[in-house]
Amino acid sequence: MVRVGSYNVRYITTEEDEQNNWDNRKTRVVRSIRDNAFDVFGLNECSDAIKTYLSEQLADTYTIRYFNPNVSSGNGSSSGESMGLAYRKDMFTLSDWHYFWLGSNPSAMTVNDGTKKRGGCCAVLTNGKTGTRIFVMVTHGCLDADARVQYAPQYKQMEQMYNTAGLPSFFVGDMNAQPSDPATVVYRQWWSDAYYSECLKYGPYCTFNGFNLERNMYTHQNHLDYVYYRNATPLLYMCNDRLYDGYYASDHLPVYADFKID
To answer: How many Cβ atoms from other residues are within 10 Å of residue 17's Cβ?
Structure first.
């Protein structure tokens, strides 16, 4: 069994009130990650200080690789956000690692979502005990609806390029898209959505809380975070709405699914 998840941890901004600024919630984020006990998960909206903090605080359990689409080399510091792929040190080794930008030349840094630069990162992970290999891709989807659907087919193209062995495949992230969105329809032509599988389900439908403690997460319809899969069997899906000291850890809820590898 492998637990695959996605977590948008919310970038550092002065827009938040005191309880929800990064300095006051960063320990909640770490507690949340540990409580969800991911085996492998994608991270979104990682500012430089977030990258440093999470890598240090989780170093005993996880290796985290980051892709910064705002730097031409794909890594390093910038004022923008990185995405990350984290995996358990005692479970996996990294066999392959790639990143790409959305556009006609995936290896070139590109403005492709209004003023933003979007792309993805992916890896092949090998289970040290069983030798089983899996392919995992992470993205933070385009905000612009036209860009989102324009580039949606590229994720399949990248998966086919970097997963030539047809390994069990997982595609995770904050897609900035509802289940009815045209881009989501494209993703589901290649992957399946763990939420809509026949597995056990726990937690709310809504994955975006906006730090709003009054929002009913079980009736609100903002479903943005996904765990897609191929060649695996979902056993359980969780959207975790747990509070820490009475507050959310992030404005998104962590989501994960447990899979049996076929």
So the answer is: 8
